[in-house]
Amino acid sequence: MVYAERPAPAGLACLWTRTVSSPTVQRVVPDGCTDLMWAPATGSLFVAGPDTRAQLAEVAPGTLYGVRLPPGAFPSVFGVPAHAVRDLRVPLSELVPSARLDSFSDMVAFCAARLVVDPALAATASLLRTCDVASAAWEIGLSSRQLRRRCLDAFGYPPKVLQRVLRFDAAMRLAWDGMPFASVAVEAGYADQAHLAREVRALAGVPLGQLIRP
């Protein structure tokens, strides 16, 4: 399998391609993001919602093209709350029937044109990376119930789940960079390495060492 990322227009997370020469199964772990994907071999154009657990995806030979949206961007691009597609893969036609996309560049233009960057959502995600839910709600000026509703609509998760996913994603990035697991636990905000190990198993379904193995 060959996977590659490249920079995207402002507001989008990245553009990516994945090419495989034979059928395979890929483990996709939660990262808080959502993706618009196109498989030219089958003509399928579909959206990957925010995941709460690892997904085992059967990958057919060929190249898959993707536009990754940052956490919180889903509703502005697709017109429905993110929780409506949580843990799902949905044809784009079910969300935006009027969309007519025939190429990767069409996908990028579609997402970039519809994306609305909301500073309040960025602030919400940033606070939940560093403090508890009650403190985040107080800093933003929302009640806990209002924060929950905002998070479900924008990110697809209630605040505590969003916090777990963002912390897990940060830990994965550190581990992939080669940081020792004990240091990953400290830097990502886990109580200790055992806490990190439990969360990785819960969200990814396998131990950290297996998850980052080339």
TrEMBL record:
<dbReference type="InterPro" id="IPR046532">
    <property type="entry name" value="DUF6597"/>
</dbReference>
<feature type="domain" description="HTH araC/xylS-type">
    <location>
        <begin position="133"/>
        <end position="214"/>
    </location>
</feature>
<keyword id="KW-0805">Transcription regulation</keyword>
<dbReference type="GO" id="GO:0043565">
    <property type="term" value="F:sequence-specific DNA binding"/>
</dbReference>
<keyword id="KW-0804">Transcription</keyword>
<dbReference type="InterPro" id="IPR018060">
    <property type="entry name" value="HTH_AraC"/>
</dbReference>
<dbReference type="GO" id="GO:0003700">
    <property type="term" value="F:DNA-binding transcription factor activity"/>
</dbReference>
<dbReference type="Pfam" id="PF12833">
    <property type="entry name" value="HTH_18"/>
</dbReference>
<dbReference type="Pfam" id="PF20240">
    <property type="entry name" value="DUF6597"/>
</dbReference>
<dbReference type="InterPro" id="IPR050204">
    <property type="entry name" value="AraC_XylS_family_regulators"/>
</dbReference>
<protein>
    <submittedName>
        <fullName>AraC-like DNA-binding protein</fullName>
    </submittedName>
</protein>
<keyword id="KW-0238">DNA-binding</keyword>
